[in-house]
Amino acid sequence: MTPQRTRSTTLRFLAEPTDMNLYGRVHGGTVMKWIDQAGYACAVGWSGQYCVTVYVGGIQFYKPVHIGHIVEVNAKLIYTGRTSMHIAVEVHAADPRDGVFSRTTRCIVVFVAIDDQTRPSEVPTWHPTTPQDIELQQYAVKLMNLRKSIEEEMSRQE
Ligand SMILES: CC(C)(COP(=O)(O)OP(=O)(O)OC[C@H]1O[C@@H](n2cnc3c(N)ncnc32)[C@H](O)[C@@H]1OP(=O)(O)O)[C@@H](O)C(=O)NCCC(=O)NCCS
Prior knowledge:
Layout: E1 8-14, H1 28-47, E2 51-61, E3 70-80, E4 84-94, E5 102-113, H2 131-155
Antiparallel strand pairs: 1-3, 2-5, 3-4, 4-5
The site of coenzyme A has 13 residues, from strand 2 and strand 5.
């Protein structure tokens, strides 16, 4: 059977009371867990291999997520390296009474596919075709270059 490669994944569920912080909203850490889960499903769906998170960044919390609201976590591949996959993740939430979704959080996550010995393993290359996807790929490359400067700066403090 030919493996099905999927470039994007959406998780959809209700924010539960167990996700609640002291202010009656969802914990930031819980939102980050959802982001990691959606990104993981997306990376495995593309590569067909187990993957590990190597980077999470640029996370922005625009709005709180309320308990009982419907949550949608969309993860989309926007760049592939040799073994890495850069994934843009967005979280949207809606009151189920009106179903109007608004964006609450976004970030970039990088996963690396690994083999049985947990060594980095090559992934299929993603080739963007639409102007929008080409722009997303360029955005991922730009962020990667910005991160290199940040890492250089941080390494001076080690
Ligand atoms: C994944 C891991 C095996 C890779 O090992 P490594 O020695 O860094 O391997 P490499 O230097 O060959 O890097 C592999 C890829 O990861 C990318 N990478 C590694 N660290 C990165 C980071 N912090 N940010 C972005 N990309 C990173 C490299 O650019 C490279 O990408 P490419 O092959 O597409 O060019 C190792 O970093 C690891 O085990 N990290 C911990 C993962 C983990 O425990 N995650 C949390 C739980 S899932």
